[in-house]
Amino acid sequence: MGSTVRPSVSAPVPLPPGLLPDLSRHARTYLMRGFTVVEVHGTVDLVTAPDVQLHLDAATRPAGARVIVDLRSVDFFDCAVLTQLCRARRRIRERAGHLGVVCVRPWHLRVLAAARLDTVLRPAESIEEAALAALARSGPDVNPR
Predict the structure, then answer these.
(1) Would you list the DSSP string of 20-73?
(2) Given the DSSP bridges, would you call strands 27-32 and 66-77 parallel, antiparallel or unpaired?
(3) Is pLDDT above 50 for 144?
(4) Coil, strand or helix: which one is 116?
(5) Which residue, 15, 43, 57, 84, has most beta carbons within 10 Å?
(6) What gap in Å lies between CA 20 and CA 28, rounded to an integer?
(7) Dist. CA 29–CA 111, nearest whole Å
(8) Residue 90 and residue 95: Cα distance in Å, rounded?
(9) Closest CA to 85 of 109, 125, 57
(10) In what order do the strands lie in the sheet with 35-44?
(11) What confidence tens digit (pLDDT) does each residue in 21-43 have?
């Protein structure tokens, strides 16, 4: 029997001290297997979105950053989250990094599809799946869409 070789996850991108924001009501950021994970919680709308943006901006700041946005704990989001995901993707592309999105709720996936972001962001079902998808791509996220 042959063995399947899976890409390994290297060390995290070095982050300057104080770069990761503190846990907040709607987001927390942590390092996991070479990726910066921004875990989003609760209801995220125009009023609460700045809290999430703080975390996304910090995660996407370093050149070559590998970021995963985990939306599994989000109860509701509106267009403010779509705007933030697009902004994070743009920042990642400018800095030659990778962006993954974890999203499993059917309603959320329908919103991403309606905005035509499902093919651009390619939501995964787990952090591990998003990380492996990012590592499987040969270069940074430079999809022209």
Answers:
(1) SPPP-SSEEEEEETTEEEEEEEEEESTTTHHHHHHHHHHHH-STT-EEEEEEEE
(2) unpaired
(3) no
(4) coil
(5) 84
(6) 9
(7) 24
(8) 9
(9) 57
(10) 27-32, 35-44, 66-77, 98-102
(11) 777 789 999 998 889 999 999 99
- Higher per-residue confidence, 37 vs 11: 37
Q: Which residue has the tokens 């899976």?
A: 6
d(CA 34, CA 11): 5
Which residues sit opposite 69 in a β-bridge?
A: 38, 101
pLDDT at 27: 94
CA of residue 62 relative to chain centroid, distance:
14
Q: Report how far residue 127's alpha carbon sits from residue 38's, in angstroms, rounded to the nearest whole number.
A: 11
Confidence of residue 16 (pLDDT cuts 50, 70, 90): low
| In the block, residue with structure tokens 């990094």 | 97
Structure tokens, 90 = 């743009």
Q: Among all chains, which residue has been given the structure tokens 């890409």?
A: 7
Q: What is the rounded CA–CA span in Å between residue 112 and residue 91?
A: 19
Cβ neighbours of 40 (radius 10 Å): 24
pLDDT at 135 over 60: yes
